[in-house]
Amino acid sequence: MTRPCTILFDGTPLGGNEGEPLIDFLDGHGVSLTSVCYQKALGPLQTCDTCWVAVNGELVRGCTLVSEEGLDVSSAAPEAIAARAEGLDRLLAKHELYCSVCENNNGDCRVHNAVVEMNPPVQRYAFEPKPHAKDTSNPFYTYDPDQCILCGQCVEACQNVEVNETLSIDYASEHPRVLWDGGRAIDDSSCVSCGHCVTVCPCNALQENTMYGRTGPLTALPWSLKRPMIDAVKGLEKTIGARPITAVSELDAAWRQPSLKRTKTVCTYCGVGCSFEMWTRDRDILKVQPTEQAPANGISTCVKGKFAWDFVNSDQRLTTPLIRENGRFREASWDEALTLVARRLLEVRDTHGPRALGFIGSSKASNEEAYLTQKIARLIIGTNSVDNSSRYCQNPATKGLFRTVGYGGDAGTIKDIEQAEVVVLVGSNTAENHPVIASRIKAAQKLRGQKLVVIDPRRHEMAERANLYLRPNLSTDLVWASALSRYMFDHDLADSEFLARRVNDVDAYRASLEPFTLAFAEEVTGILQARLIEAAELIGRAKSVCLLWAMGITQHSHGADTSTALSNLLLVTGNYGRPGTGGYPMRGHNNVQGASDFGCLREMYPGYESVTDEKARARWARGWGVAPETLSLEEGLGNFLMVQAAADDELKAMMVIGEETAFSDSNTHNVHQAFEKLEFFVVQDMFLSRTAQFADVVLPACPSVEKEGTFVNTERRIQRFYPVLEPLGDSRPDWWILTELAARMGHDWGYTHPSQIMAECASIAPLFAGVSYERLEGWQSLLWPVAEDGTDTPLLYTHDFPTEDGRATLFPLEWQPPAEAPDATYDLMLNNGRLLEQFQGINQTGCSPGIRAQVDQGFIEVSPALARARGIETGTWVRVTSRRDSLELPALVTERVADDTLFIPIHFGKFGVNALTGEHADPVVQTPAYKEVAVKLEVLDRRTGSPLPATNYRFGHRTPNDGVAVELKWANEDYRQPPAHQADPRKM
């Protein structure tokens, strides 16, 4: 609990809260204490020496002080003024100041701002170039040692925020500079191009390549002109002093502002829900700049969120509606296209009935657009056959949570994951699929001693970092999870008080655990009993546990049961309803949670109300102004069943919005044949995707940066995004398209802004009762459930569970083997998943040359043991054949996979891995068992180089350290504490 306090700053009393960093405390009062190296997210680094103040007559770096009652600070003391001036002089000795032609002179360069604030009459120490060349090897950013002030913010961000642990500074070197892996070129290091270092750099030493030559009136000049201009100004400065030059640079910064636009948006890649400002000039996306205000990510990004936005201006974008005639597409007007779509959908409904149509909403479009998709399906067509891509990934997790605790979403927030004593990752390659959440876990482990347990058949980065890593056989996770639950009961580690007070069916569940002995678990999973006991003791004795899982659990023939088993384990140990506890199914797409929340589910209205519930139907009918019988009480078909129904000539028409179903659904050949059978097929997308190529009408939609709306991230956090750019060509926002389509189908809803759509949903769905655009303004966010007064719920289940009696339920389970297993012919198992750099079918990331340079082709990972047995080396081509089809790929020999399990990234190829996957699925939720594929492997007489470039970050060697070693700088015999002058300020 914070307490109020009053401090004195230069004799003026200032009130606030105790424990706040002094710089932030003063900033809240409109008082600036110049500091170049301080950033709230990084804490006091003490490297720039520009924030000296006097406290009780002693010089202290202001960044180290926190507010407390009676603190008396003087920035006006002569020795403090002199010390700050000396600190700035030393920075300018290391940084060549040429602001008016610099791309970074946009108001947020802290070196420039410090010069303006302190306004030195001269530059005491002359700048001299360093004996280091610019590093331009990375496709996304450049490091210029001549501009580097050695503040170490990049090092701190890399080591202790991102925790990729690539950067360091050797202050003892004759000519210190920032080092990647101890001195490698950036693109030949372990750098994952997350952009943390670029984000925190206070000047232009680290800068996005998209900024060069594009941010100001003079920045586009070639260096052949810039260099003489800089030299001339430097010479002039010696005669007239620095202040006139500073004034000109201020004019330049102001000159730029009208053409620079900074817009808050939310990332459209994974489910972390990173928000940031996007800087643009005309249609040029200059950079992505995260901020401490961003609720999910703070200053963090990953390579895709920071740099993979080339698709927005891609010449492959669809910019006009297309209609297929005589086997070819022709361009059409919006009126013609929408009129055709409306007429054909209604004709199919009237001829074959509502069940003959299916709708797939987008997990990348907004909540409002998901809402309209299901509204058209339910209200206009009369079918509940509406779904989204969660059917392919997270529906099993949602089902497991519905069975046990009541809500199909994360139990808490990223902050809960950070503060847990133990984090358990199961079937989640978090560092590559949810990098920002992985960073939080890595930081908690490194800096605060959090214990990390990883259970996964693939040894990815998080497994390498784990305090305990268990490698189970594929598809056996229900067994070890249930065995751990039994162990908790048998060894007095179950939370008996929590179970008695808050959980039903404890005795029946405990009885169901009879088969799950440690011996049985070892036999099935391949995990030694001693290791299982180690995991049980670590989890059972922890005061708080968060368990995260993803598609490594859900994409199996019994993923719903395994998800249930994981939630059961959390209930047995009392790990729900308290800070730092709970189950966290990691959502893959940016709005796969929101698409489900807002009704793109075959069995649920928005807010998770069953379509078979007559009371819920009556309320939705009343909210929509129709008779209840207008809305069907029959559950619809999900994605997977829609495609099968199309193949069986039962589904006659489909509308797919922003989903690459032709690539993402299992057994690709059957999917394509099903699409070809449809009487009418309409696709709404940004690109002529593989799915769109089967369509009769293609409607050109906009990316999120060209429209307004809201998303829900994996935390259940609703965030607002704003239009960064105007729609490209004649493309339109999905909500506009759906509104216009509904009007042509006889339902003119009259929406002119997405806020009206959200307001309608909030007025009907209790889960979103208090959600409004006003409450989501700027960086504000809300986590559902949201009460009518706007009170949201960051942590679920603190008082009761959303069930009839307010109690959770332990759900008994039986072990069932996977639906597909190896045999004498198909003797290997094939795993699959995402890579950090790419996204899904690469429609978006494939437009980025920088991304393609990191990894641009498919490959198959083979274990060293299997490689030796089969005569395979990295670069050997192999044919992998399932019971459905074959693919030919180059091999990558790696210890990430073990024994007789292979791995293929899902992103590449005309058909991709789904040419191999089958139609066996989870019988509870119909999620295809993508991870259960038995294959055989043939070695081909073909050799190429490594399918991953030698410079790929996976071949780098990290250099972990504690962050900025400023003590080494101070300990150097050449160092003099300001205000004393420095003999060689370039080193210090």
From TrEMBL:
Residues 260-316 form the 4Fe-4S Mo/W bis-MGD-type domain. Pfam families: Fer2_4, Fer4_7, Molybdop_Fe4S4, Molybdopterin, Molydop_binding, NADH-G_4Fe-4S_3. Keywords: 2Fe-2S, 4Fe-4S, Iron, Iron-sulfur, Metal-binding, Molybdenum, Oxidoreductase. The keyword Iron-sulfur applies. Belongs to the complex I 75 kDa subunit family. PANTHER family: FORMATE DEHYDROGENASE H (PTHR43105:SF14), RESPIRATORY NITRATE REDUCTASE (PTHR43105). This is Formate dehydrogenase subunit alpha. It comes from Halomonas dongshanensis. The lineage of its organism: Bacteria, Pseudomonadati, Pseudomonadota, Gammaproteobacteria, Oceanospirillales. The gene is fdhF.
